[in-house]
């Protein structure tokens, strides 16, 4: 038998270098966006970048353990509504398109993030 372990989503996005390209494209999208940029006005971009990469690496079953604040702790008080949440997802999709992540892999990534919706919206 020559079975090998199935590829993790982390591997499918191109491991650390792929994640960095994705998150840089996402940050670039947010920076040019009129709808959600205002949430990030006070944000330290390099802290956000590092934290978002490590969180995604963890969620996509890569070799990282995200040790930052919880999704609820981070987003409490931002009052993010459904529309703005969906808009952020659109920007993430645009970033995934930009770096060439295939649609099946995009859908697998979105499925991992979808359950976090209720920890982020209107809290
Ligand atoms: C599934 C969706 C989301 C995930 C997984 C997520 C994840 C994260 C993570 C991991 C961080 C921390 C980065 C760090 O360590 O600094 C963060 C910060 C942040 N998130 Fe989200 N987020 C999501 C949706 C959103 C949405 C929809 C908005 C606003 C429209 C938003 C606004 C922010 C802001 C403004 C910060 C920075 C907070 C600061 O300045 O300290 N997030 N997010």
**Count of individual helical segments:** 7
Largest sheet: none
**Distinct compounds present:** protoporphyrin IX containing FE
* Structure summary, number of beta strands: 0
Portion of residues within helices: 55-70%
Residue windows where pLDDT falls under 50 for at least 5 positions: none
Helices and strands, in order, run as: HHHHHHH
Kindly estimate the percentage of residues that lie in beta strands according to DSSP.
under 5%
Q: Please give the alpha-carbon distance between the first and last residues.
A: 50 Å
Shape category:
globular
Computed structural class: mainly alpha
Rg over CA atoms, rounded to whole Å, is 15 Å
State mean pLDDT (0 to 100 scale). Answer: 96
Describe this structure in words.
The chain has 123 residues and is an all-alpha fold. The chain has helices at residues 9-12, 15-31, 45-59, 71-75, 82-98, 103-113, 117-120. The longest helix has 17 residues, at 15-31. The N and C termini lie far apart (50 Å). The mean pLDDT is 96. Residues 36, 39-40, 42-43, 47-48, 51-52, 55, 68, 74-75, 78, 80, 84-85, 88, 113, 116, 120 line the site of protoporphyrin IX containing FE.
Sequence-ordered SSE layout with sheet pairings:
Blueprint: H1 9-12, H2 15-31, H3 45-59, H4 71-75, H5 82-98, H6 103-113, H7 117-120
Helix pairs in contact: 2-3, 2-5
């Amino acid at each position: 038998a020559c079975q090998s372990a199935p590829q993790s989503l982390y591997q499918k996005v191109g491991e650390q270098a792929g994640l960095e390209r994705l998150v840089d494209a996402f940050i670039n999208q947010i920076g040019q966006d009129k709808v959600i940029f205002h949430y990030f006005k006070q944000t330290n971009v390099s802290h956000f970048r590092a934290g978002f990469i490590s969180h995604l690496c963890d969620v996509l079953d890569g070799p990282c353990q995200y040790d930052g604040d919880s999704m609820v702790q981070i987003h409490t008080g931002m009052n993010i509504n459904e529309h703005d949440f969906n808009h952020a997802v659109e920007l993430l999709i645009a970033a995934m398109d930009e770096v060439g992540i295939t649609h099946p892999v995009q859908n697998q990534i979105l499925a991992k993030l979808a359950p976090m919706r209720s920890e982020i919206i209107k809290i």
